[in-house]
Structure to design on (801 residues):
């Protein structure tokens, strides 16, 4: 479709010079608005995979053809009756953001020629949303599930409060309007009970379609903050009122026609949110600079590092965190009373509002995490009846607010994900050095961040070890996760660890071949005097396959592990004491006497900066083969994060 | 090629191990999964229910919402009460909270929240008397507003 189309389709006198058209067609605003992306050595192509998103049949791959077609469609005298997009609306209604942008750049010469078109669907939609600003919401990890520590992001379209809408003065209840806002979530449509293999392959190679949907924010809070007990962090973006309106117009285009292939790792929920924001602020350059994968937590840091992008960050603590904070400020006597009430003692008018409110939190948590009986529901009713006769509210308790603030770890402050380690050590007089690289690493000796306090994840760690001038591959760690948590009456939680890796077992001969090892443990932990110190114990099992030092090609170890984790001075000094022992029921090694092996170790970490820490570890390895049964080892390690 | 191999390996490990538990609603490694939405259902949702999710018509099919193209104030209130019944019960008993504040805004009482919350707390036992349904609770809330001289004057939405 050429420029002649303008003349042919109607009496419009608007005809911009070709240079101007080329300038607009290659402007960052136009390219972002239609989600064109320049891939390496390839021409620009839109990431939207839906023909209805474009008016020109070549629109998906030709920004200029789409521009010309859009101008023609907006200007057509019969525009009101020509249907576009999935919802079959006039062009001006299907693509309001494009119209707004073109009106801005072409000015009066263009906008004065537009036929009048009314858009009742879009109008009622945007009036219902009533957005005043836009926030990006980060949902942190599930408690006790480090696998979810990458988090999730979605948008909140911050609602104008009724007070503001009538422009009648101060907005004293702005926080409630947040609650009544709409959340916009980009997600993949996956059928229920999808085959996990298909799920993995399709997800990886863009087999599913992703789209936006809208849900009231209070439902999002219920989903993430209550049912899943994940903290929500709300980052308000620095959009002007006009930019917010423009964003809503663009969101409508995406909402009705913007279907994207969904790639789990890179073109995922967090990435598409960035491209949508970029349509409003191309200068923020949000969607570039990611390699291999786009982790939600990294997108939040990306925004934080964009000057002027974020106005404010607010935390909405999860139900579990609120419960823990509420319990932590009770006196011993109050806690004793709470315990007996929790075991269904009758509430009385003598019970304080604090105790009853904490009990209500505990019962709510129980209901969200377990199936509760009808007796429990009736009990809750009774408690509420007593509570309604008490004045004073838990929200007003400053000690709880303080306890929650003490636990704040901003996700955008978390350390970079990858880690490089260098270490030097001495084991029984033999010096060694080691080098390792992890694609993703966080453990409880790191400065705590938005992850759970005592969780560990290591993915793709490669280790090389040097001893006496000999370099050899020492370890290939695919996945290692651990979560240690204080178990409590109100919020039961187990501690566990799991790992799978290729490794050279330290207790075999130095020239032994590597083995594949799978190991795991499941146990309990308890707070050791205060919530930042934890004592845990768990039975563990390990299976090693393929070692030449094994009689049956494998070795089974059954045993236990116990440890003490100390994080006493908030980010300054962390220690981990650990003892474990494994028993080999099959006498699998070629050395018959060797039925027990174990290790006691102490690791001390001193964080120097957000990216660098030093660790000292002292370990004593023990095994029952008589000769050389002990080995003492000292290691000094430096970790760099990038 | 190398990238694909790395990614396949990554995903296989993740999906087959600990991430299985996270696939229903969390993002895991940056993904988010929703119920299957057909194009038709999303289009219908857009044009008939405006900004209300279509679960509304499922959970509250009798409201007549399906026929409207604009969200009626009353159906929005009903949807809010229906969605948050348990939390509203808790916060009415406590006399404060975000759900209660949200209800105050919905009822047009944000300028007299203090009176609204204390009235709701006082009326707790009548409002939640046993078999609680959203219409019954909303009716009690409206009655409470009408019976209070301050609220009757300041809350716009219910009159």
């Amino acid at each position: 479709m050429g420029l002649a189309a303008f003349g042919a389709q109607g009496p419009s006198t608007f005809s911009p010079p070709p240079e101007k058209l080329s300038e607009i067609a290659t402007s960052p605003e136009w390219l972002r608005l239609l989600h064109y992306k320049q891939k390496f050595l390839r021409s620009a192509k839109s990431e939207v995979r839906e023909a209805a998103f474009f008016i020109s049949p070549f629109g998906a791959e030709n920004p200029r053809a789409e521009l010309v077609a859009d101008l023609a469609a907006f200007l057509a005298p019969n525009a009101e009756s020509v249907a576009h997009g999935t919802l079959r609306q006039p062009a001006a209604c299907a693509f309001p953001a494009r119209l707004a942008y073109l009106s801005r750049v072409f000015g009066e010469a263009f906008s004065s020629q537009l036929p009048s078109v009314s858009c009742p669907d879009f109008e009622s939609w945007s009036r219902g949303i009533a957005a005043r600003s836009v926030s990006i919401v980060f949902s942190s990890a599930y408690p006790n599930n480090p696998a979810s520590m990458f988090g999730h992001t979605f948008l909140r379209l911050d609602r104008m409060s009724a007070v503001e809408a009538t422009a009648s003065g101060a907005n004293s209840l702005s926080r409630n309007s947040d609650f009544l806002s709409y959340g916009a979530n980009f997600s993949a449509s996956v059928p229920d009970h999808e085959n996990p293999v298909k799920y993995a392959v399709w997800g990886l190679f863009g087999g599913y379609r992703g789209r936006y949907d809208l849900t009231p924010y209070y439902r999002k809070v219920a989903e993430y903050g209550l049912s899943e007990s994940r903290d929500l962090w709300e980052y308000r973006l620095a959009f002007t009122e006009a930019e917010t309106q423009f964003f809503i117009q663009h969101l409508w285009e995406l909402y009705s026609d913007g279907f994207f292939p969904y790639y789990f790792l890179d073109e995922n929920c967090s990435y598409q949110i960035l491209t949508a924001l970029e349509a409003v602020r191309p200068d923020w350059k949000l969607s570039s600079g990611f390699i291999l994968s786009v982790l939600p937590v990294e997108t939040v840091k990306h925004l934080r590092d964009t000057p002027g992008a974020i106005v404010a960050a607010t935390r909405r603590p999860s139900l579990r965190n609120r419960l823990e904070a509420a319990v932590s400020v009770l006196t011993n006597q109050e806690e004793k009373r709470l315990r007996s009430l929790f075991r269904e003692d009758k509430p009385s008018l003598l019970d304080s509002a604090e105790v009853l409110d904490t009990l209500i939190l505990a019962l709510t948590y129980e209901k969200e995490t377990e199936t509760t009986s009808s007796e429990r529901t009736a009990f809750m009713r009774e408690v509420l009846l007593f509570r309604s006769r008490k004045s004073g509210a838990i929200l007003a308790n400053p000690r709880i607010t303080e306890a929650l603030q003490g636990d704040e770890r901003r996700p955008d402050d978390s350390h970079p994900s990858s880690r490089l380690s260098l270490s030097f050590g001495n084991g029984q007089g033999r010096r060694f050095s080691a080098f390792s690289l992890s694609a993703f690493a966080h453990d409880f000796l790191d400065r705590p961040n938005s992850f759970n306090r005592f969780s560990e994840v290591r993915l793709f760690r490669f280790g090389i070890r040097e001893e006496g001038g000999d370099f050899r591959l020492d370890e290939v760690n695919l996945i290692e996760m651990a979560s240690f948590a204080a178990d409590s009456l109100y919020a039961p939680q187990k501690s566990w660890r799991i790992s799978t890796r290729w490794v050279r077992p330290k207790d075999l001969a130095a020239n032994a071949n590597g083995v594949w090892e799978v190991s795991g443990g499941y146990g309990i932990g308890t707070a050791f005097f205060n919530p930042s110190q934890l004592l845990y114990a768990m039975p563990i099992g390990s299976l090693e396959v393929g070692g030449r030092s094994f009689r049956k090609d494998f070795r089974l170890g059954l045993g236990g592990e116990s440890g003490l984790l100390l994080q006493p001075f908030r980010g300054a000094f962390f220690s981990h004491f650990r003892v474990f022992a494994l028993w080999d029921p099959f006498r699998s090694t070629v050395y018959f006497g060797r039925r027990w092996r174990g290790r006691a170790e102490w690791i001390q970490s001193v964080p120097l900066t957000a990216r660098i820490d030093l660790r000292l570890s002292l370990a004593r390895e023990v095994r029952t083969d008589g000769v050389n049964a002990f080995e003492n080892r000292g290691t000094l390690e430096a970790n760099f994060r990038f | 090629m190398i990238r694909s191999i790395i990614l396949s390996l990554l995903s296989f490990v993740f999906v087959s191990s600990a991430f299985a538990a996270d696939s229903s609603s969390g993002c895991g490694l940056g993904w988010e999964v929703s119920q299957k939405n057909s194009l038709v259902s999303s289009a219908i949702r857009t044009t008939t229910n405006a900004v209300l999710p279509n679960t509304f018509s499922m959970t509250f099919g009798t409201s007549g919402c399906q026929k409207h193209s604009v969200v009626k104030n009353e159906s929005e209130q009903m949807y809010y009460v229906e969605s948050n019944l348990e939390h509203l019960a808790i916060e009415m008993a406590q006399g404060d909270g975000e759900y209660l504040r949200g209800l105050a805004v919905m009822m047009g009482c944000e300028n007299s929240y203090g009176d609204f919350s204390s009235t709701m707390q006082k009326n707790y036992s009548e409002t939640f008397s046993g078999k609680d349904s959203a219409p019954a609770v909303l009716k009690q809330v409206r009655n409470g507003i009408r019976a209070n001289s301050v609220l009757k004057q300041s809350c716009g939405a219910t009159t």
